[in-house]
Amino acid sequence: MADINSATTDIIRAHHTLSFQVVKLAFMMTGNGLYTGQVHLLDIDLHPDFYDVTPSSFYTTGMREVTVIYNPRNQYAHKYNFGHALLYAGSKNMMGAAILCAKACLRAGCGLITVHTETGTQPVIQASFPEAITSNENDLQLLSKKKAAIGMGPGIEPSPANAILLDELCSTWDGALVIDATALHLLTGKQTTLLPRKNHSTVLTPHTGEFDKLFGSSSNDFERLEKSIANAKTLNSYIVLKGPHTSIACPDGNVYFNTSGNAGMATAGSGDVLTGIITGLLSQGYSEKEACLLGVYLHGLAGDFAAEKHSQEAMIASDIIDSIGECFKKIRDLKSQTPNVY
Amino acid sequence: MADINSATTDIIRAHHTLSFQVVKLAFMMTGNGLYTGQVHLLDIDLHPDFYDVTPSSFYTTGMREVTVIYNPRNQYAHKYNFGHALLYAGSKNMMGAAILCAKACLRAGCGLITVHTETGTQPVIQASFPEAITSNENDLQLLSKKKAAIGMGPGIEPSPANAILLDELCSTWDGALVIDATALHLLTGKQTTLLPRKNHSTVLTPHTGEFDKLFGSSSNDFERLEKSIANAKTLNSYIVLKGPHTSIACPDGNVYFNTSGNAGMATAGSGDVLTGIITGLLSQGYSEKEACLLGVYLHGLAGDFAAEKHSQEAMIASDIIDSIGECFKKIRDLKSQTPNVY
Amino acid sequence: MADINSATTDIIRAHHTLSFQVVKLAFMMTGNGLYTGQVHLLDIDLHPDFYDVTPSSFYTTGMREVTVIYNPRNQYAHKYNFGHALLYAGSKNMMGAAILCAKACLRAGCGLITVHTETGTQPVIQASFPEAITSNENDLQLLSKKKAAIGMGPGIEPSPANAILLDELCSTWDGALVIDATALHLLTGKQTTLLPRKNHSTVLTPHTGEFDKLFGSSSNDFERLEKSIANAKTLNSYIVLKGPHTSIACPDGNVYFNTSGNAGMATAGSGDVLTGIITGLLSQGYSEKEACLLGVYLHGLAGDFAAEKHSQEAMIASDIIDSIGECFKKIRDLKSQTPNVY
Amino acid sequence: MADINSATTDIIRAHHTLSFQVVKLAFMMTGNGLYTGQVHLLDIDLHPDFYDVTPSSFYTTGMREVTVIYNPRNQYAHKYNFGHALLYAGSKNMMGAAILCAKACLRAGCGLITVHTETGTQPVIQASFPEAITSNENDLQLLSKKKAAIGMGPGIEPSPANAILLDELCSTWDGALVIDATALHLLTGKQTTLLPRKNHSTVLTPHTGEFDKLFGSSSNDFERLEKSIANAKTLNSYIVLKGPHTSIACPDGNVYFNTSGNAGMATAGSGDVLTGIITGLLSQGYSEKEACLLGVYLHGLAGDFAAEKHSQEAMIASDIIDSIGECFKKIRDLKSQTPNVY
Predict the structure, then answer these.
(1) Mean of the pLDDT values across residues A281-295?
(2) Which value, in Å, is the radius of gyration of the alpha carbons in chain B?
(3) pLDDT category, B1, cuts 50, 70, 90?
(4) Mean pLDDT confidence for C237-252
């Protein structure tokens, strides 16, 4: 089994696959999981510089990489230093998405969070998450004022009003923007018009189904990966393709595969949590690339802690949120122990 | 005291009862608990093959059996792999039943959960359990689309609309179905018409009172057991008769007695939790038989963990839900340690 | 300082008071706490039989006494064995009282709990405590059917409708009844008419202020104690006079002083929790006397656990509820270790 | 770098700053944090009496000082001994502020808490915090009766009605008063008229932005500090200027800098928690000075416990509330170990 997806040829269904020193691209493909079984890396004593001198546009994100990205808090900060995030999330039957997204956003470290919801649904958020401010202000210019980052999508209706809002966001909002879930649905067919209008990059967080609707279906994971790279470039976007090894395709053509996470995260609301985390990191001033890499890794690591506590079967999205703190503590400890990674 | 319930003859009220190697059927009868006191099994060194070669239609479900049934998660899964469960549960004064059932369902491992509730009651669910999607869509065809399993009954009104819904479910829904609580009440008198219409088996989860309404009163536990076997066959149903040793009568005539659980589970909402767990397991692709055996055992084991933490008196149904994760971890650990049970 | 409250004579304000073997009645009086400081009992090696042969109508309730009262669960029980409790509690601005009372009631071990509340307030209870059934059924005969015990008072309005309900409860309800808070206010002036109508004893749970309104003001704690004894006899009631050493005056003239608890329990909702616990114990079949002694002790012990975890200052009523399980576990363990106390 | 803020001259950006024995005033200035890096105090063996004989109007509040202030509970208390606090807090989109403030207030040890909120928003508080009583009674005289302390501001609307209420509070309310958030905004421009009308001191808890609106902008932290001292005197108020080293300027001209806390407290709702804590301490009978010193320190220490558990990034305001109990336990333990500090 080589670096292309050889679904058309004969393949052995291995229980174990041995490889030298580094993971192969094919191991990152969801569809190949059936054939590799458990992957073992054999240390062949490659010189560490090897990684830096060998050109590749494919990377993995692990604890080492996020420890470099992570930026400990300035001890003289106040809440406005960590940004005020704005979320467009939730609707009458999907308020939970707004709650999960908002909680994750604040626990990812932003200073303040405002959730725009349908009129009448505010009490649900406030009873569940008192730290959130709610709003039903429909004037984007008013509501987005002094906001550091905006996330749109979890649990919203695919309504004409939301389609107009997405259009307006892409046309007039200068800051960091994450588009997820229903907002990706609303974006479908307009992405080449809307996204390039923006001054800087956008973050898109589709799962495979949403990705295929946006960019057309693919016959295999490699083709889908190629599409994500092409579109990340064209649309000046970070395309976070969610799956067992979530890939982040960057506008510069590089791709980062995430190495944390587990099958217990295949649970309702897990994606809303990721959107909240990335928006919360953007809000604190992390760049789009940093927020995607650190956010996706944090989400997976929090899921690993949650599975350890609750099992993969029983864990739910709220458990992922509750484990975000442990992740930051672990990353901070590692960073303080390895001063040379600063 | 032999294998029949000899309530009409003189019986000793023992503090302790000693038996050889295996439990006797009579020990599984609730009404006999008064007479056996604590049961002790004496190991007489029977050959393990004994169990397999001795024909019987009565079995007990213990950790050994559920470890075989339990199917660890494929690491390359996404939430649609674990199924989207649909619950008809809750009404104005019984919303809690919907919340408990839905939480248990998701913590049992299904991927997504939608709760159909009365119009106006959605905020109660969403504030309590953000992972749930709510719906008041009354068109079964629309709502049941792409659902993996349906549970009906906890906390619903015995209304004409719900009677019609139950009828429609039995007539048109092809997938896995659990009928509990008020839905059992609505089924009463129509079971011989409705249940055989279905292509495959149904799961019924009555407590003794509900069972007697459905199938007529019994003069003792043995008679009730016989009725459950007869009806399981006739109605092509798994009849989960809830009690201290919950019995599961299968369409093939076999009966499985559960061995986990304790008297602390005699608390409000405990049955709603069981319905949620079974629906959640069905949703992941477990067969009706597997979902009943594994679900009833999980429910009891989670209750045992809850009693250890909170006492039998103080434990409540939410504590059972909170302990589901520990059960899966224990079963998974056992399974990984005994590869030959695969 | 002797056994009467000598507030009119010169008293030393001691930091420590030493006494022989047993507490003196005066130590149980709240007003004397200022003068005794910390009380130390010196063991003078009195024969244990002393307690049984020395006639007194004043007793203390400690771990030894409640271990005798406590009745472990029959392992073959279902939820109807532990009774269905009914609470009249809560109103628009005091819903919390209903939630705290209902949670404590179920955690005290009753099988089912229905809370009667004002129309429109049900969602608040259901979102907070899914195990509860709510009701706004105003027909007492309908609602009280098949109920094992009724508690009335926490957080209700002093409305004419509630006055009529209390009257009806006393006139027609045959089962166990606890009257607290606003219901005590509504009872004031009518107690000699209403309470003797009942077939069996009632439980009243006033704090000092409510007691004085019911039975007239007292010049000191001894006078108040005497009044509680006299009224307990006349009204065939158990009068639980809440304070640092809660006293329970019984219809037979005996008084039991509680020995558990701490000043951290002087917090909003603590009394609602006590009412819930006593109603929950009555619901399981404990007698009025047993429910009062065990309930008051449990409440205090749970408060002691809560203070250990959260401090006396920071602990709130919910923390008391969360500690009820630890109390039952401790009492059960003690009982199983000392079989002769059965 | 001396004791004035020398922002206009050349400054070294140090990684570490060494100082002798005691902190310098300049280290307390937020703006200087950029230049000092981490501050280390070198023990030069100064005689402990030094602190008492060296005149200064600048103090730090540490564990030693709050242990002296802290007053353990009288064991014969009931809830009315710890006071009934009243909060004007919350509005349709900011109910969370009311919940956080009320929870912190009760966990700080007051006996009872009533929250005045907009009509229709009560259910949100009651579902989240059952210990609270809610009210929409707009007559201050009625509502403030028998209240021990009042806090106004978190999450309220800047409405004319609230402006009138603030005016009335300052004119007619004799007891302890804390003004925060929106109430500070409403006070702006009227402080010299309203505050001196009161019989005794008021507590103001502005962050830098609110402070500058009230008292005019400052070119540096020293100027702002001077303004806080001048206004504390003129307005007979305790001015709690929130920041990394929160300062408390007293009417007598002294200033206390807090030494607990961390950058994780720069999170939504953290200020609402502080207002609750101070109001709760005032309610128990602590003086304004004691409540400010103890309250600000408790708030910071609880934040330190929360950061230890959840990390600075992931901790949210609710985590601070949950840690208040640990603070009281620590302070109480220290006090009991050092009887000479009584």
Answers:
(1) 98
(2) 20
(3) very low
(4) 96
CB atoms within 10 A of CB B324: 29
Place of tokens 């073959």: C76
Sheet-wide strand order for C112-116: C58-61, C255-258, C247-249, C237-241, C202-204, C176-179, C149-152, C84-88, C112-116, C133-135
User: Identity (one letter) of the amino acid at D341?
Assistant: V
Cα R_g (chain D), whole angstroms: 20
Tell which CATH architecture fits domain B67-337: 3-Layer(aba) Sandwich (3.40)
Chain D hits for C263, Cβ within 8 Å? 73-77
**Cα D112 to Cα C316: distance, rounded to the nearest angstrom:** 10
Q: Do the chains contact at B130 and A207, CB–CB below 8 Å? A: no
Which of these ranges, A261-265, C255-259, D10-14, has the smallest mean pLDDT? D10-14
ipTM for the predicted complex:
0.90
Residue A341 has pLDDT above 80, yes or no: no
Strands of A170-236, DSSP E = 176-179, 202-204
- Nearest Cα residue in chain A from D128: A127
The percent helix, strand, coil of chain B (3-state, each to 5) is 50, 15, 35
CB-closest option in C109, C122, C129 to B92: C122
CA distance B242 to chain C (A): 9
Report yes or no: A183 and A152 within 8 Å, Cβ to Cβ: yes
- Tracing tokens 């333990």 back to the chain, one arrives at D333
**What's the CA angle centered on C276, arms C270 and C280, to 5 degrees?**
150
CB < 8 Å to C108, chain B: 313-314
Chain B residues inside the 8 Å CB shell of A34: 76
Confidence of residue D9 (pLDDT cuts 50, 70, 90): low
Nearest residue in chain D measured CA to CA from A137: D93
Facing B268 at nearest CB: one of C112, C134, C332? C112
* Nearest neighbour of D96 by CB, restricted to A111, A132, A332: A132
Token pair 């999330």 in the structure block, residue? A89
Tens digit of pLDDT for each residue in B163-190?
999 999 999 998 999 999 999 999 999 9
pLDDT of residue A104: 98
Domain ranges of chain A: 1-56, 67-337
- Segment B223-232, tens digit of pLDDT: 999 999 999 9
- pLDDT of residue A20 exceeding 80: no
Burial of B189: CB neighbours in 10 Å, binned 0-12, 13-18, 19+: exposed
Residues of chain A neighbouring B107 (CB-CB closer than 8 A)? 310, 313-314, 316
Residue D113, φ and ψ in degrees, nearest 5: -140, 130
Q: Which residues of C touch D130 (CB under 8 A)?
A: 95-97, 99-100, 128, 269, 317-318
Distance of CA A297 to the CA centre of its chain: 8
Question: For residue C308, what are its two tokens?
Answer: 């250990």
Give the closest-approach CA distance of B166 to chain C in angstroms. Answer: 23
Pairing of strands C149-152, C176-179: parallel
pLDDT higher than threshold 80 for residue A256: yes
Q: What is the pLDDT of residues A139-189, one digit of tens each?
A: 999 999 999 999 999 999 999 999 999 999 999 998 999 999 999 999 999
Eight-class DSSP state of C142 = H
Instruction: Indicate yes or no: CB of A270 within 8 angstroms of CB of B135.
Output: no
CA dist list (Å): D179 to A98, D198, D210, D317: 32, 13, 11, 19
Residue C243: is it exposed, middle or buried by C-beta count within 10 angstroms (0-12/13-18/19+)? buried
Conformation bin of residue B2: beta by default, left when phi > 0, alpha when psi is -120 to 50? beta
What is the tens place of the pLDDT at every residue in B279-335?
A: 999 999 999 999 999 999 999 999 999 999 999 999 999 999 999 999 999 999 999
